[in-house]
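Example noted here:
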Amino acid sequence: RSFADTIMRTLKNFTLPTSRLRRRGALTIATTIAASIVLAGCTAPAEPTTGHDHATTIEHVHAIVPDPSGDGYLLGAHDGIYTATLDGEIGDRVQNTDFDAMGLTAIGDTLIASGHPGRTTAPELGSPNLGIIRSDDSARSWSPVSLTGAKDFHALAAGPDESLYGLASDSIELLRSDDTGQTWSPAGEVVAVNLAIDAAGQLFAATPDGLQVSADEGATFTTVNDAPLLYLLAASPDSKRLVGVGNGGQIWVRPASGAEWVPAGTTHGSAQAITITNGGDILVFDQSGLTALPR
């Protein structure tokens, strides 16, 4: 029984004959994709490259991005945004960020995020959803940008031209923004759990049909031949490298545009978030906590 068959059999439970039903089922399907990959990987015998135990009190991490201040990383977590060093040591939660930080993305020195408010989140950021919010001071303060209270983006990806793509939790409609999230326009439709854009401007999506790519700004997608089936996907800050996690917790890297995907380690259990630097170093948060994997 193949890994892809396991996912597709699971997805057969979701019959979405109309556009409206497809949109309502988007989040459930995306969750099923990731869960199926995790379950398929639970029996993998490989010793985890990330080790077995790292000290952490973070419940769940959605994304890892470079700190725009130039010192380490920021982790977008279920209960706020945390700092981390270049070698993977988790620091304190950034003050006044108790919100569920979904889709944390860096566009130059600007941070974009979505999600849900926490108990002490400023009311102006929105409820029950944050829409798009923005920070220009390394997550210390945030302001509402668009779709306030209306949308919860679970996947956001920025390109080298600063274009921004997003998938909200209530829809399979892919949205695009060319003004840092202030206005959005429909680009296409895709069922995906993660998005990433490479240096050539190609938009990649981790889907139940495998890794897919769009060369027309999200209007259409085609399957990437010989690419691994991934449930996590991210690009380096310069967009030249892609990294992902797939079956059995296998970490995969595409080191350059057009290059083959190569194995780069194994996670401990299911991974929650991953990123890669311009130089090829990897940072991953899995069941053992946060680990830095030098190139």
In short: The CA atoms of residues 102 and 161 lie 22 Å apart.
